[in-house]
Amino acid sequence: MGGMVRNVAKVGVVAKVGVKAARRPEVRLPPLEAFGGGELEPDGDYDGLRFSDVDFVGQDGGGARFMDCALMGCAVDETRLHGARVLDSVLTGIRGVGTDLGSSTFRDVEVVDARLGGVQWHGAVLERVVVRGGKIDYLNLREARLRDVVFEGCVLVEPDFGRARLERVEFVDCVLKGADLSGATLVDVDLRRAAEVSFTRGVERLAGAVISPAQLMDLAGVFAAEMGVRVVGLDG
């Protein structure tokens, strides 16, 4: 119980002293060439290309590099991009279920209006990334490293941050529903502007986050349950 009390206290202390803001990506794409077609290639090198409404369903682009690219309206159901590197790129309206982005690197990337489910982003490195709009169900970010990441105006249903490290991560006007923070490390994580926040596990890992007074009231029952405190009225 003592550890839980200390962790809750730390959340309040962070709120008093402030939190470092995430550095957002500044993506400036050069003139792009249209993708010439064909399937993704493992360890392929894609530079300065525009992928419009391309069907990548079930393809294998493991280890590929995307540099200065725009992917718009692409289907990525069961697409394997394990270990891929996505750099200085914009992904707009991508959709799919079961996409494998495990151990990938996303740096200076904007992900806009994505519709994804069961995305495997475990062990990935995300740096200066904005996820804006859209909905992602059952996002797996276990053991991932997120630094300077902003989730903005999106819906995240049961995201798994187990044993991940989140540093300078912001949740802005987004819904964070049923998040799992088991074993996660949070540094300068700002939840104050989230539209909705709830957790299934790991609420004791919120040390290093900043929340609003209203969120503290909403989470009071969760904190109490974690500490083993029963809340009973005088007539109960």
UniProtKB/TrEMBL annotation:
* Superkingdom of origin organism: Bacteria
Q: Name one Pfam family in it.
A: Pentapeptide_4
The protein's UniProt keywords, in alphabetical order, are: Repeat
User: Known SUPFAM superfamilies for this protein?
Assistant: Pentapeptide repeat-like
Q: Does the keyword Iron apply?
A: no
InterPro entries in UniProt: 5peptide_repeat
The record's listing under PANTHER family reads: THYLAKOID LUMENAL 17.4 KDA PROTEIN, CHLOROPLASTIC (PTHR47485:SF1)
Protein's UniProt name = Pentapeptide repeat-containing protein
